[in-house]
Design a protein that fits this description.
170 residues; mainly alpha; UraD-like; binds 1-(2,5-dioxo-2,5-dihydro-1H-imidazol-4-yl)urea
Length: 170
């Protein structure tokens, strides 16, 4: 899909195509559609980024809260979005041994208790050792730093999802 084809999409098709570039936040693509025409894919990505940055802290935390836990209930029950399932598989989240799964569940819970939003990391850029190490380290951060870090990871996830969509669909 080239940028002219993206710019020609009516909003229904645009949201159908790009609605999950930020996990379970179709509002973002619905809003960003108004920013057409985009000069490039990078320009569309920048529009998503700017929309997120303009949100109050509660909005940013809301975006984090739309993300499923890594190796969490959604993965076990098969209710993840396709994108999330594939990303979690790349990081080996569907292949944890019992001890790793237990550690992951405990740390995810500890993180959520401390910050009130889930641990978010770009799974495609990690493996399970890295996820566990970062989860454990990031539990010790300050809340504001973790909010910013989580949002930075959301943007990485978004960039990879956008690129995959444009590669596959156009
Ligand atoms: C996720 C997810 O669903 N995909 C990804 O890369 N990271 N979730 C998370 N809590 O980090």
């Amino acid at each position: 899909m080239d940028i002219a084809a993206i710019n020609a999409l009516p909003y229904e098709a645009f949201v159908n195509t790009f609605g999950n570039v930020v996990e379970r936040c179709p509002l973002i693509s619905a809003a960003v559609w108004s920013r057409r025409p985009f000069e490039s894919l990078a320009d569309l990505e920048a529009a998503v980024s700017e929309f997120i940055e303009a949100l109050p802290e509660s909005g940013k935390e809301g975006i984090l809260r739309c993300h499923p836990d890594l190796a969490g209930r959604g993965l076990q029950s098969g209710t993840l979005t396709q994108e999330s399932r594939e990303e979690q598989a790349v990081a080996g989240m569907d292949a944890l041994d019992q001890a790793e799964a237990l550690r992951m569940a405990r740390l995810n819970e500890q993180y959520k208790q401390r910050f009130g939003f889930p641990f978010v990391i770009c799974a495609r850029m990690s493996d399970k050792a890295d996820v566990l190490r970062q989860l454990s380290e990031r539990c010790r951060n300050e809340r504001a730093a973790e909010r910013d870090r989580g949002i930075a990871e959301v943007k990485k996830i978004c960039r990879l999802r956008l690129r995959a969509l444009v590669r596959d669909k156009l």
